[in-house]
Specification:
By secondary structure, the chain is α/β, with parallel strands linked by helices. The protein contains six helices and four strands; from the N terminus they run E-H-E-H-H-E-H-E-H-H. 37% of the residues lie in helices and 12% in strands.
Length: 154
């Protein structure tokens, strides 16, 4: 399967000077991985799918399965807060993937089924994560996303 992923949510100014080189290297490695993903479909209109918004809204997996994979421009992966009720969460309530209650394995399987092979972007709007070392948060997110995606590779 041809998934790629990038991290979003941090500014270079958030990264301590002594870790900047490593952070930039990690960023460019992820960008290179993304550029290896190509599609032969002309994108006229596309949507951004998002694990949190699918889970936290009246949307359904069945509806998402009806969307051809080439019509998704990219996919935001995030997780729902286990301490707050579903349908009442807002963007800042999202937690690191693997720390929440969304069935991310089912989300990835759905993407595989519809033939999606584009970018997966870790999207974290959680202030507690923003207050941590950005490089460490990025590493953790990448490790968890790699493990999740590798479990779906034949």
């Amino acid at each position: 399967k041809g998934f790629s992923h990038v991290m979003t949510g941090f500014l270079l100014s958030d990264i301590p000077a002594d870790k900047l080189s490593e952070a930039v290297t990690l960023y460019f490695q992820m960008q290179y991985d993304h550029q290896r993903i190509t599609t032969s479909h002309l994108m006229i209109a596309a949507l951004i799918a998002d694990a949190f918004h699918t889970w936290n809204s009246p949307s359904s997996e069945k509806l998402l399965k009806e969307i051809p994979g080439h019509r998704i421009s990219h996919y935001h992966i995030d997780d729902g807060n286990p301490n707050l009720p579903r349908f009442q969460q807002t963007d800042p309530d999202r937690v690191m993937i693997g720390d929440g209650v969304i069935d991310l394995d089912a989300e990835i399987e759905m993407l595989v089924e519809i033939g999606y092979n584009g970018m997966i972007s870790l999207e974290l709007f959680n202030q507690q994560l923003w207050d941590q070392d950005p490089l460490e948060v990025a590493r953790l997110g990448k490790q968890r996303l790699d493990a999740l995606l590798l479990s779906h590779v034949n």
